[in-house]
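## Example record

The block below lists the input lines for one assembly entry, exactly as stored, with component labels intact.
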Amino acid sequence: MNALKKILGIVWVVLGPVIILFLIAQAMDKISLATTSIDRMNTSLQWGIIILIFIPICAGLMIFGLYSFKGEYDQLPGSSDDL
Amino acid sequence: MSSNKNSETQSITQVIAASSLGTLIEWYDFYIFGSLAVIIGHQLFPSDAGASALINTLAIFAAGFIVRPFGAIVFGRLGDLVGRKYTFLLTLVLMGGSTFLIGLIPSYSSIGYAAPILVLILRLVQGLALGGEYGGAATYVAEHAPVGRRGFFTSWIQTTATGGLFLSLGIIVLTKNILGAENFADWGWRIPFLVSILLVGVSIYIRLKMHESPVFTKLKSEGKVSANPLKESFQKKANFKMVLLALFGATMGQGVVWYTGQFYAQSFLENTCKLDFNESRYILLWAIVLATPFFVVFGAWSDKIGRKWIMLVGMLLGVLTYRPIYQYFIDATNVKEFEKTSLKMTSEPVVTKTLIEGKKDSLLTVSTTKTLNDGMTFREISTTVITDDVLAPVEKKTAIADVTLSGNTYVMIIFLVFFQILLVTMVYGPIAAFLVELFPTQIRYTSMSLPYHIGNGVFGGLVPFIATLVASFPGSTPLSGLWYPIGIAALSFVIGAVYINNKGDENVMD
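Predicted structure tokens for the full assembly:
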């Protein structure tokens, strides 16, 4: 199981930036499809919110992956004293 | 011994009742906005905004969710420093006040864009308050609950989110039925917001009589209260890694399952399947009533078999069943297709002609109510723009509205929404106990609140907004929006299955 956690750790580290790049690509695509200036403003606002929210979350996923790769989750604390 | 046990149980019962009532009211305050998104959209934005008004209203709705983690940090810190009781008393006042004020905001036609901006500000206050409330209530109850029964006792707090949604839907449907659809859309939608001040008043009175958590009081008397809960929670690697694990392995998946079952289902039935306003809400009300006891069932069961697998099975079932369930919703309400073979009668058309504001053109609306052989009814509305220019192309649009279901389909859809809420009870029933047991007393309020509110507020709260947005993309289908909750729940399932222990630390006195 610890080997699997290590491998998955790499997956999470890679997944973080991939999600952000995917969201940015989607945002650019959808903004370019908007025909009127109001539509463009609305679409930019909506995607701006989404990207702004998911950047720190994806950073968190990368840190989670890094901890996992380093073996921080190999043994979870059994009680609060272990924290 | 027996008498001591009785008085202890009674005291826990009082703790649960007082905590749950306040939390239920906060959820009520928070959810009336989402339940009235379509009407509020018409009030806050220009009348020709169309679908973007709904999306922008959902964005304001989502803004309340997005700030929940910040509320968790601000009030969580306060709760770990000064105590649980006074912190969640403050959140209750903020929530009640902002909800009441939303009910007083003039519409777009009176004050222009100041209307959505003011509502957005109040919505942010609501989000901050809720961010501080839940962690406090869950921690407060858990710190009163005996070992081995924490899942059972905290599951009562878990029922309040669904209870608040039920209360909000109930008051909305009741108000609309009393006032009539026109008055409700015009000004009656404000009543559910204004009513909140009474509910909050009662809850404040009850909460003022409560005592501080015994675990926190002990900690305080020993001088062991954390000097800087934020620093300890997020800068100490041992704690921070558990915050990340709680978020990605549990609350993220739990959040999307919650909001798909209890929000997106109703929004989908109303906006995509074009179900009648009351019909879609009655379906959800029935499903909630039938499913709510299972919060306690799964909470209590998690005391026996562990929290992990109950939550993860709920997520997995969501991943596997959402698409077939929503496909059924579409198929069962496809009245245009049914009309070809089973049209029973068509009402006399109601024709109205209105002048388009600021133009010489007018809008001709023809509305007919059609009934099918199995008892389903719907309204077909065709609109045509009439211009002076005889050479201009005639623009005619036809839309379906106010679909009511036949008996069998109605029962089946209630069952399918019930099933989705059953999944909610699986993921949500045990999660308060799971989170409380993950963190020590000094930083519990802060540490458990943040992953909970990112999971629920951000991942979950964005379900209606992102799913509606994705479904509006060119080339997408009505089911495309489901990829968001399915993807997040699948990711959380994998992380939870690999990383989380089934049995947590049952001692919360440390």
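The two ends of chain B are 26 Å apart (CA to CA). Residues 267 and 324 of chain B are 17 Å apart (CA to CA).
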